Structures are given as C-alpha cells and as structure tokens.
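Progress narrative, work stream C.
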Amino acid sequence: MREDRSASGNARIGRIQGADARQDRPGLPPRFSTGVLNVDKVAGETSFSVVNRLRKLTGAHRVGHAGTLDPLATGVLPVLFESATRLAEFALKLPKTYVAEIHLGFVTATDDAEAELEPVADPSAVTDRDLEAALTLFSGRFLQQPPAYSAVKLEGRRAYAVARGGVATRPPAREVEVYATSLLDFQPGARAVARVEVRCGSGTYLRAIARDLGEKLGVGGYLGRLVRTAYGPLRMEDAISSDAIADSQTVRDRLLPAEVILPEMERVRLNVEQEAQVRQGRSVRVLPEPGPGPVRAHDAEGRLVALGHADPLRRTFVPEKVLS
C-alpha cells in the first residue's frame, strides 16, 4: 500500500493529476466553480480514477488532487477544481493525520500487505510499553529511507520500476517530519497488530514507519490498513464518500472555498479597482498594510483573487499567483 503521495514521498508530490489541459476559448462551456471537495476515498479506487471520474461528471476544465492515496488506502482526498488546482503546492504544506495498522513479526518487499509475507521473529513478547517507547523514535525531524517500491526516482527511473525489474533498491534516506505519534490499540500475540495514529508533514512514508518500527522492536513489521483521517482542516467525518457522488450538483453543494487548503496567511480585501490591477499582475496599496510573510487577497465579495507578499518599502501588496 502506497500511502499519501504528498505525505508519502512520492515524486508526484504537488502535481495535478487528471487535469484537463483545455483552456478557455470560444465554443467551450463556462468553467465549473472553483473550490475544493473533501472526498473520503473508498478502498479499491485510485486517486487518479476519482479525479478522472469527477472531471467527466462535472465537465470542469481542470481537476486535480493534493496528495495521492494508494488504492487500498482510504480517507481524506482533497479534490481541487478549476483555479484551486494552482494551490496544490500550498496544500502540501498542511499537516496530515493517519491511522495505520502495523503488523508485527513479518516483513514484505513492498513494506505493506501487497507482497508476500516473510517471517522475521515471533512478536508475542512485545508489549504496549515496548511499542510506545519505540514510537518516540519517530517524532520530530529524522532521516527516513523510502520503500524500494515507491515513486522516488533512482537515476531518472521510478524506484518501483527498478524494483519490478529485479533490483529492489531503497532510495537514499531523506529528512521527514512527524509532529506526533500515539498508540491507539494493540493486539499482542504471534500475529500482533498495533493501531497507530501519526500526524506528519509531506514526504513521510507510513510504510517506512511500519517497517522501521518493526525493525526497532527486532521482529519486523509492515503496513496493513491505512486511513487518512485529516488533511489540514479537512476531516474525514465531514467528507463525502467517493462512491456517493452521483452528479454535478452534489459536487457543487459540497464544494468548499479554495482557501481551505492554504496554510495560515494574512488576508487583505481589494476593492473593484484594486482587483482589476492585481489581475493584471500589478502591485496595489491596501489598508491596513499587511505585515511580512505570505498574504492572500480577496475581492469585495470575499472570493480569493491572488496570493502574494507585502513590499515594506513601497507599502504595497505584490501579487505572485493570480487566480482566474
């Protein structure tokens, strides 16, 4: 199972999948609404297939997502429509929360349940205290080696393609950040299973945590069921199941403003004249003057217009990314 590929180190981080390359031109229908749909992806669907189905269902010109979930993984998949697709790079900065089932006593070539189990050691002696102590090692910033079967590139080729060719080589370790881990439940025994909650940043492989946790305990481990329960402010309990989306109106009714996937930013309001200038890429002076750091600008009706920063010398808002 290849977990969040925005939160799993996939090389496709931040890329918009399923995007329709058509541009606005005479003869095409008007754009679908800009916004974000909080989808609870069901097991068995790929993230790409969810995006592709929603694109066809809504007729939107551009549809994408912020962070792949593997086919067997479930939970929050932010699907972005129209101009919101341009915000994927910002969405990736949001923390993600997962609930993972880690099986002890075995390892697999893929570090998840999709490959043959290889016994390592009897985990019957492992206790919940042992698990809690080992989990403390997976907190903060640390180096993590992605799985051999991952989309990380090795000399220009995806690691999974190299592995399928008979050379299962793990990519070099890289720094990841885990904000918190906790043991939710533990079923001891010869087929021990630990249920763990992990809150982490982008690039973190949950499969690698399962593998390395088992190694620290001396019994081996692999990732079983994986659920993404939160993506920034998006929660699974507020999501709509991907198999319950039957028509375009359902999507419109559940669409959230594009800014829900933005990290904290200072907000400024533009009047009609300022909005026109910003849409042409020009800097404008706004009151009150924004402070240092990233700034988002909204029109008179509260809709997101642009992202940018403040120029303290000229005392202006400088647009960097303008949304259509």
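Work stream C, second folded protein:
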Amino acid sequence: MDAMDHAPSVTPRALATEAVHAGREDLAALGVHAPPLDLSTTYPSYDARAEAARIDEFAATGARLEGPPVYARLDNPTVARFEEALARLEGTEAAVAFASGMAALTAVLLARAAQGLRHVVAVRPLYGCSDHLLDAELLGTEVTWTDPAGVADAIRPDTGLVMVESPANPTLAEVDIRAVAHSCGTVPLLVDNTFATPVLQRPAGLGARIVLHSATKYLGGHGDVMGGVVACDEEFARELRRVRFATGGVLHPLAGYLLLRGLSTLPVRVRAASATAAELVRRLAADARIERVHYPAIGGAMVAFEVHGDPHEVIAGVRLITPAVSLGSVDTLIQHPASISHRIVREGDRWAAGVSDRLLRMSVGLEDVEDLWRDLTQALSARSAEPAGVARSVAVPSPAER
C-alpha cells in the first residue's frame, strides 16, 4: 500500500484530537478504519532506471522517497504514519523513528559528527545510558558537562549539540528550556522529552531544535514495544534518515503500528497517571519514613523519593507495584537507579547529579491510588523508621531552576 499523504491539517486541532487522528487521515479514502500494517521488507519494481534515480536522490538529500517504497531500511509506510503523528504532537516539521531511544540518540550524534561537530555540551542528570554514551567517547564525541547557567561558556567552535533532559531521569530536575535554548545561540538544543511527553511540554515551541523520545516508554505505553524517535525540522530529519539507512537502526513496522496506536491514548494515560502521582506525592511528603520527595513543577506520572531506611527493602517489599526498569506503562513500576538505570554512570558523577544511594524512582500507572498506597506503605514499613530530628522535604524547583 502506498505511503500516506504527509500534508498537515489546515485547521489547528487540540492535542487530544491530534493524538487520535494524526497519521490516520487517509484511512476512510482507503476504505479501512484501522491503520494498515505493512510488514514487507522489499517491494517489486520493474523500472530499474527510475529506482536508481530515486535512490540517488535519497543518498544525496535524505528526502523521503515519493511513490511506492523500495526497501524497508529506506522507509516503511506504517512507520511513516507514526512519524507523522509524533511530529504533529510535538509541533515539528518531521520526525524520524529508530529501533530504540539509544539508536535515536546515536543517530543524532553521528549526524552532527558527520559535519565535523563532535563536541557536545550536556547537563546532568541524563538517563544513565545517554550519560554513558556521551562520556565513554564510543562514537568519537567529546562532552563537556555543565549546569544550565554554564551552557553558553561551554560552547566551542566544534560544538554540534547541547543536550538536556527535563524533567531529568531519575531526579526529575527541570531546566528552563527557553533560557537554555537562548544560551545555545546557533548550536542545536536537544531536549529529551521522554518523561514529559508532548502532553505536558513541547520543547520545540520553547526553542529546542531536536526533541528526543524513548518511545518504549509513554508513547507505546504498555510495556510491549521498543523504539525511539526524534522530532525535528525537515532539514535535520534528512540527515537522520541518511544515518538510519547507513547504520540500519530502523524501527520494525509492528513497533510502528503499536506506537501509533499508543499515541491515541497518550493524553488520557498521562493525565490520569499524573493525577494519581500527585496524590502519592502528597502522601509520601507527609510520611515519616520518607526523607525527601522529588516531583517536577510541570507534574507528570514520575515520582522519585529518598527513604530513611534501606531502599532495597522497599524494592523487595512491593507486591502490586512491579520492581523493574523502564517506565511509562499502564502498570506502576519502581526501581533503584543507583543499582540499575544509572549503575553505568560513575559513582561520583551520580552523586553530584543528585542520584543518591537512597533514591527510588517510581513510574505511576493507571491503578487505583488507594491500592498503590496500600502496597507502598507496607513496603516502606520494613526497617524505615525515621531517625529523630530529621526533617522531610519535597523538592519542587524554584522558578529560576525551571
């Protein structure tokens, strides 16, 4: 089946409406209600000269091929629907999907390095594997770590990218995206928007040129699909498509199908889980067994908290909540970042970024708040009496920090 028409709608629509309809506008004309799933790896062509010309054009420009597909590593109609929909939700010209969030970040770094721009300025904390990819110089990149106020001074002539994650994994620290974008000047700002999703924030409207998602998380939403996606302008999307074709980090069509389906319920899921998370934050902040609660000013379904007792006892004590990595699913997950998601980050760097050994990160799902609280409170009861004289606090960023 031919790729869909990628023209955006003329009349602006609300986010909830876009989530349901973006990428699906041509279905009625096709005579179907559900988006088709195209699993083809290759496509028939009887005009080799015309195909050669199209492939030459793609190799030179990275522009999406017009007409029927050629090969799945170049493009896939099902994946293209997801890309169109995500771009619409993020308010960008284009989006390019990959096999995972890390594949997406790798493609961004390679695209910039291809221009001779191997230096990256980054703000901690980031997701642990993103931190490792930058710091280990696996792709020949060099990173300068700084705080948001130091971004402008850290930029060099060979700086190809500034990267922030807001809210950040796992402390939920926020940065003022508009202010950082201003500090970047002409250097592209990449914002990892995995935790917030376009439901809570749209970084492109705040000055970011590149918006990164681990689509495995909230965009899929059910813990059964892995993917990554970069929302950006069409110029950069062309660079990313060329990198994707050369490196092979393509999103499988079934994953694209599931991610497009996940987008349709994204606003409902994020808002419902966020309401439950806010109530859990209120209860945790008043609990003597909790030292500190971290929750972003923009809200969301992610909660982090530090316990007075042994965090491993809490992990071992939950029954309804699942102790597991990842996040953004319909069920609630909890994990100990210092042991798992950020274990690959050097200990001193973890601590400096606020990732303490007593920090737990929880991805709140769609269960009833009373059931979740009952499970949490019984897990916290093991070896978690508050030491005398220790004050509790809720970490909500100041306007300057946001």
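Residues 1-9, 384-391, 397-402 have pLDDT under 50 and may be disordered. No further action is required on this item.
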